[in-house]
Amino acid sequence: MSKSVRLSDELVEQAKQEGDLFHRSPPQQIEHWAEVGRVMESVLSYPAQARVMQTALRKDLDAALSVVETAKGKRRAKAVIARTSGRYSRGK
Fold it and tell me: 55 and 70 share a domain?
């Protein structure tokens, strides 16, 4: 069941722009971001979460997020997960 939620115009516009790159509608892009956040929050240690939150408060977050789905971004994410959680295995 879907629910209506109020979102800022800025977030919806960012979701539209980013979603266009990956052929997602704004709601699909926001759901994608939410899922990524859920996964990352569950696997990162508290110190790593704190660093992510500090980054989120900086204006360069958009620049950081723009590389998330690139090959370089995926390699960096895997390295951080491996270093901070011990739950990541190279075979997956």
Answer: yes
Per-residue pLDDT of the chain (92 residues; tens, 9 = 90+): 788 889 999 999 999 999 999 999 999 999 999 998 888 777 777 787 777 777 766 666 667 677 777 888 888 878 877 777 755 444 44
Alpha helix (H) ranges present in 22-87? 26-43, 46-56, 61-65, 71-85
Number of domains in the chain: 2
In a domain, 4, yes or no: no
| Position 63 in a domain | yes
38 contact partners, CB below 8 Å, separation of at least 6: none
